[in-house]
């Protein structure tokens, strides 16, 4: 055993949550959850989006009051009235969305809330020293004097962890901590967590990714739809078993992807220069060529120009300079209607604010972007019969589960909403498909479905441009991979011939300088 | 689902509006008690004054006519996400325009003169409505500010025209235009009453608006823009053009209200506002910005207005109580709508939408609340 502290079955439980029920109007978020965490272990809490993980942790942390159930911390009954009490009992939480103050320095953020009640005076130097020492001890390298807003996301997360440690937490809860990190930052986080465990700390690690469970945890508790479905020792379980527990049925984790046979270019961008919404340069001379019959993956850390790239290709943004060609047409600066007519479909990354009108019924969401199409309207008149029939067919073919075509899109789960968008966009039989984060926030079952659809489109000779922050998704689906960094393509790779590490380095902007400019490993 | 979805979609709104009106009437009863009168007697008088016979019904519909048109005007703008509180100004310039056109006595046959009069009103209202639309689309000026200013501007414009005898066919002493040529007047609808064809036009307008909004791509675009500007952009629907269009439609409908008053009821434009343009906002809100609801709400407000006189005369209840009643209806409807948003709506969507949708499937989460998965519901930050 690598770590002497690794718990045996005899380690005492630190956290016991038994039969926890938490209801929200219309939803039972936690429906009788049991979670027992032993001292000195890294315990993964695995479940799909909406399974109730965050709610459970908020209950533990005293942010929500449970409707039923018992909580014990260190064997003593605990019902915290608020986070301060939870902190007092040795708990610390790193939220899914950081709760830090951007204009404060690292030190100020760390000592926030724990300034001490005795003195009004804040001894800056002493505080900085304490924080620096703490950072040193756990390998949380970060400059105590840096302003938070200037730090990359991975560093900001360290500040959250530091704050928890500074407050004396011995049990640390991390809610989906890897969502915003590059693979390298994830590895560094793992190292920190191991160090914490060696020091006798206990960690609850929330995730919906199987890979992370295997990589970091000692034991794992799976919850599904608000209920505990099992606790396993990580070493004694397998990814398929966990997936089945999480989803409730057998899941095919890898998409079947026969080799691609790319054809002629269908979507070409040349030297695109685009200004972002805040006036910053977002794309700085970007080139790409998408061919028929291939999935071209674009990976990169969020905020490197992905949104601007997709929106420019989709006609929602005008490039400052550069060209976009779709098939033989120059479509630079054309509006979405013209682009659709020319053969483009687009699955937007924000399905609530772009892809759907949530308060429209499914039928009218199928109509979105299709009002000019002959199948849907004559002159100004909407062909309601046809619209209804097409919607029903799409719901059946794409497995969109809803009571009726008149149900409002808002009432659908994320996965079903996404399937509806995909159904609408594929119904048009496009030449090129932009898929931006097509599986963000949808459940594993729907992810499997979406991935199969994308591969099918490719095999029918369409060009698929896949933009995703999920490196596994990119690696699983793409035939070619482009790395986007700082508004430029900084690497091109053939799928299967590149490691996660290599991609990760490029995504972090490294590896470019040594090779002198844009690298092509082909 | 048992009911056709169109009806089941409308049903909760209808029920909630009815409940709201009931609550408002009960609250009104309490106010009447406080003023020392008998609420039962007052309401009985109000009701018989509004619906007790041919004349009262006609008077109710006379009052409802501008309210329905104005309510539709508010509704169409609201569907596009615009808060048009300039209906009053649009209505008044439209009334003036048709009053002038009619007062010139051009010696035209009714088949031309009357449509000309009505169209001039709709055009004037449309222009008055287009201005805030264009200002918002081009410069982002908020329509609440610009429509208020245009209300003042309309008032000044009318004052000027009505007092400039040497240029316009007006009579400054009676503060009105000259009487409208009989050939340009909207004919009477019911002998022995003041009910005129403007009421029919209002109903036609409601049907047309309903059709355009819910059955045509044009109306679809307006609704899409109003509900989600982002999704509309995604679909390639031009936001600016669409809100201008909706504001023009709004002004045209307000103009129809003005035409009804000038060419139908009064036979000339009188420089004295009954404030219908403002009550119309309430009518739109109470009618949930749906043409059918607006007709209902218009008649309700018309009834309260026309029954008030009888209430004052027979029950001795002060006529001002009517304003209180109208205010209570608005408050109560707003409260119900807000509460419905958070509770009733949630329960209904959990039962009919999210709940069954989620449960029908083996692996989808059920989200009864309209909460985005990207927007993780998180409690506020720890108390700092
Ligand atoms: N404050 C809240 N109000 C209403 N519903 C909520 C709230 N918080 C969470 N939910 C609902 O409870 C369910 C579980 O959510 P959550 O605990 O955030 O899941 P997870 O963290 O596993 O993705 C979801 O259906 C979510 O919409
Ligand atoms: Mg969560």
Automatic annotation (TrEMBL), chain A:
- What this protein is called in its record is ABC transporter domain-containing protein
Q: Which GO terms describe its cellular component?
A: plasma membrane
Origin species, per record, is uncultured Thermomicrobiales bacterium
Q: Does the keyword Membrane apply?
A: yes
Q: Where in the cell is it found?
A: Cell membrane
Gene3D superfamilies xref list: P-loop containing nucleotide triphosphate hydrolases
Q: Is Translocase one of the keywords UniProt gives this record?
A: yes
Q: Name one Pfam family in it.
A: ABC_tran
Membrane-topology descriptor: Peripheral membrane protein
Give UniProt keywords alphabetically: ATP-binding, Cell membrane, Membrane, Nucleotide-binding, Repeat, Sugar transport, Translocase, Transport
GO terms for molecular function, please? Answer: ATP binding; ATP hydrolysis activity
Location (main, coarse): membrane
The ABC transporter domain sits at: 15-250, 267-511
């Amino acid at each position: 055993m690598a770590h002497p502290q690794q718990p045996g079955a005899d380690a005492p439980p630190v956290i016991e949550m038994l039969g926890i029920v938490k209801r929200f109007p219309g939803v039972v978020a936690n429906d009788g959850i049991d979670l027992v965490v032993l001292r000195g272990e890294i315990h993964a809490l695995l479940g799909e989006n909406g399974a109730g993980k965050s709610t459970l942790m908020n209950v533990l942390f005293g942010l929500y009051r449970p409707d039923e159930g018992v909580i014990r911390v260190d064997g003593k009954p605990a019902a915290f009235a608020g986070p301060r009490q939870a902190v007092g009992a040795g708990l610390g939480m790193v939220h899914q969305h950081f709760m830090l103050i951007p204009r404060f320095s690292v030190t100020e953020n760390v000592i926030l809330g724990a300034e001490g009640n005795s003195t009004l005076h804040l001894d800056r130097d002493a505080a900085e020293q304490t924080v620096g020492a703490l950072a040193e001890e756990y390998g949380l390298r970060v400059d105590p004097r840096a302003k938070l807003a200037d730090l990359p996301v991975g560093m900001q997360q360290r500040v959250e962890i530091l704050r928890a440690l500074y407050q004396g937490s011995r049990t640390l809860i991390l809610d989906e901590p890897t969502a915003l990190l590059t693979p390298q930052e994830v590895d560094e986080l793992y190292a920190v967590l191991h160090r914490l465990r060696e020091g006798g700390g206990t960690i609850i690690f929330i995730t919906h990714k199987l890979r992370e469970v295997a990589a970091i945890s000692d034991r794992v508790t799976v919850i599904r739809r608000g209920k505990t479905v099992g606790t396993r020792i990580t070493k004694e379980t397998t990814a398929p078993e966990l997936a089945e527990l999480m989803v409730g049925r057998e899941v095919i984790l890898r998409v079947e992807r026969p080799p691609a046979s790319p054809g002629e270019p269908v979507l070409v961008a040349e030297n695109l220069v685009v200004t972002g919404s805040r006036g910053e340069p977002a794309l700085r001379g970007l080139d790409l060529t998408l061919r028929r019959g291939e999935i071209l993956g674009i990976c990169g850390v969020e905020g490197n120009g992905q949104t601007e790239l997709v929106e420019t290709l989709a006609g929602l943004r005008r490039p400052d300079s550069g060209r976009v060609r779709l098939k033989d047409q120059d479509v630079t600066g054309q509006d979405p209607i013209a682009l659709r007519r020319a053969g483009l479909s687009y699955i937007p990354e924000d399905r609530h604010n772009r892809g759907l009108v949530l308060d429209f019924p499914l039928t009218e969401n199928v109509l979105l972007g299709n009002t000019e199409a002959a199948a849907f309207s004559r002159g100004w008149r909407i062909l309601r019969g046809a619209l209804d029939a097409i919607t029903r067919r799409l719901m059946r073919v794409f497995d969109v589960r809803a009571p009726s075509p008149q149900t409002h899109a808002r009432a659908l789960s994320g996965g079903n909403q996404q399937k509806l968008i995909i159904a609408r966009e594929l119904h048009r039989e496009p030449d090129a498909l932009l898929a931006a984060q097509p599986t963000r926030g949808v459940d594993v079952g729907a992810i499997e479905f979406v991935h199969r659809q994308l591969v099918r489109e490719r095999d029918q000779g369409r060009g698929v441009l896949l933009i995703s922050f999920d490196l596994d998704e990119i690696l699983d689906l793409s035939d070619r991979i482009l790395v986007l960094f700082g508004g430029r393509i900084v690497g091109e790779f053939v799928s299967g011939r590149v490691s996660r590490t290599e991609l990760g380095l490029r995504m972090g902007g490294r590896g470019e300088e040594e090779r002198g400019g844009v690298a092509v490993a082909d | 689902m048992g009911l056709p979805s169109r009806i089941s979609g409308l049903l909760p709104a209808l029920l909630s509006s009815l409940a709201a009106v009931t609550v408002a009437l009960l609250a009104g009863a309490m106010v009447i008690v406080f003023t020392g009168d008998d609420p039962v007697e007052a309401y009985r008088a109000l009701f018989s004054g509004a619906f007790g016979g041919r004349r009262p019904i006609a008077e109710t519909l006379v009052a409802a006519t501008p309210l329905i048109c104005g309510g539709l005007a508010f509704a169409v703008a609201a569907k596009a996400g615009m808060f048009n509180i300039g209906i009053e100004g649009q209505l008044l310039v439209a009334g003036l325009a048709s009053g002038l056109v009619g007062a010139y006595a051009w010696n035209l046959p009714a088949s031309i003169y009357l449509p000309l009069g009505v169209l001039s009103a709709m055009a004037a209202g449309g222009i008055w409505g287009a201005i805030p639309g264009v200002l918002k689309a081009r410069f982002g000026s908020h329509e609440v500010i610009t429509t208020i200013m245009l209300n003042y501007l309309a008032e000044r414009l009318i004052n000027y025209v009505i007092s400039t005898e040497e240029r316009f066919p007006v009579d400054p002493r009676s503060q009105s235009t000259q009487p409208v040529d009989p050939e340009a007047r909207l004919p009477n609808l019911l002998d022995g009453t003041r009910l005129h064809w403007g009421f029919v036009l209002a109903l036609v307008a409601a049907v047309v608006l309903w059709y355009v909004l819910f059955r045509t791509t044009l109306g679809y675009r307006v609704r899409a823009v109003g509900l989600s500007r982002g999704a509309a952009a995604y679909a390639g629907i031009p936001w600016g053009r669409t809100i201008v269009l909706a504001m023009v439609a709004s002004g045209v409908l307000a103009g129809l209200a003005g035409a009804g008053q000038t060419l139908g009821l009064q036979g000339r434009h009188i420089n004295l506002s009954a404030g219908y343009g403002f009550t119309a906002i309430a009518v739109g809100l109470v009618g949930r910005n749906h043409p059918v609801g607006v007709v209902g709400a218009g008649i309700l407000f018309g009834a309260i207005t026309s029954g008030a006189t009888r209430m004052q005369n027979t029950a001795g209840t002060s006529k001002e109580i009517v304003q209180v009643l109208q205010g209570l209806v608005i408050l109560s409807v707003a409260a119900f709508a807000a509460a419905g948003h958070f509770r009733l709506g949630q329960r209904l969507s959990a039962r009919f939408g999210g709940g069954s949708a989620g449960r029908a499937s083996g692996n989808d989460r059920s989200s009864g609340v309209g909460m985005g998965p990207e927007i993780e519901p998180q409690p506020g930050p720890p108390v700092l």
